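>> received
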Amino acid sequence: MEEFSDARFKQRAVIEFLTAEKVPPIEIHRRMQVVYGDQCADVSTVRSCARQFKDGDLGQADLSDKTQSGRPVYSK
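>> returned
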């Protein structure tokens, strides 16, 4: 089984790519649900990532997870 962080990394790459092609976040989310199923990021996460990628330099974004303070989130 794939690591959760690997799936998130791949999904962020998809979001960045489709944002560069000017695909709306809701359509990105719909397409990702088909591929990733239960592991798919929430639509609000897709919107947030798309906004960040749109505001930054597309193709130059750091897709890796950032170190955050607080309690870690564990997947099932």
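>> Residues 35 and 76 are 19 Å apart (CA to CA).
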